[in-house]
Amino acid sequence: HGVNARKFPLEVAEYAFSQLGASNYQFDQHDIEDLDFLKSVCQNKDTLIMALVLEHLRNPYAVLEIISNSDIKNIIFESTITSDAGLPSLEYYMQTTDSAFTVYDADKTVAIGCCPNLAWIEQMLYWFGWKIESHKLEHLFNKNHFGTPGLEKFPPKTYKTITVLGTKFDTDAGKNNFES
To answer: What is the dihedral of CA 78, 4, 103, 84, to 10 degrees?
Structure first.
C-alpha cells in the first residue's frame, strides 16, 4: 500500500508495478499529515517504508507518533537531515509547492516544511519505542534543497541524508523512558 500527496509519483509506481506483473498492491493519493487517514493506513501492516518524506512535513512528531502507536513493527526511512551533530532540532523553511519533490499543501503555492537533524530523529525514535537496528549517513547531496524561486531570502542549502532501519522494542524498555 503506497501513499503520496501528489499524483505523479503514484503514476510512476503504478507503471513500475504493472511492468513487474504485480497485482497485490494499492496506491492512494492522500496527505499523510491527515492523521486520521494515516492511522487507518497503518492498521494491519507490519512494515513501513518512508522515502524522503519526513523533511517535507510540518509536524513530523505527530506523524511518527501515529506510526509508533499503530500495528507497524518495522520502519525503514530515508530523510534529509540538517546536521549529524548538535542537540535535537527541527529547521523550518518555506518552499513552493509546485514540484513532486517539495512540501505539500493543496491550498497554497508556498508552504512550510521542516527538516530534522540526526539527534532529533534518534531521540524521537527512542522516545516512541523504536530500536535503531542500523542507520547509514550519506554524504552531501549534489543538489540544492530548499532553494525556491521567488524566495531568494531563503538561500539554497545542501544537506546530508540518513537511512534508518528500526524495529519496535519487545517491551516498553525504550518508550518514553527519559526519566532518571
So the answer is: -10
* Cα 171 off chain centre by: 25
What gap in Å lies between CA 136 and CA 69, rounded to an integer? 25
Strand arrangement of the beta sheet that strand 160-168 belongs to: 47-51, 74-81, 160-168, 130-138
Output the CA torsion sign for 13, 14, 20, 26.
Answer: positive
Run of H or E residues at 70: none
Residue pair 96/109 in contact by the 8 Å Cβ criterion: yes
CB-count exposure of residue 121 (10 Å: 0-12, 13-18, 19+)? buried
| DSSP result, 22-67 | --S--EEE--TT-HHHHHHHTTT--EEEEES-GGG-S-HHHHHHHH
pLDDT tens-digit series, residues 57-115: 889 999 999 999 999 999 998 888 888 889 999 998 887 777 666 677 777 788 888 88
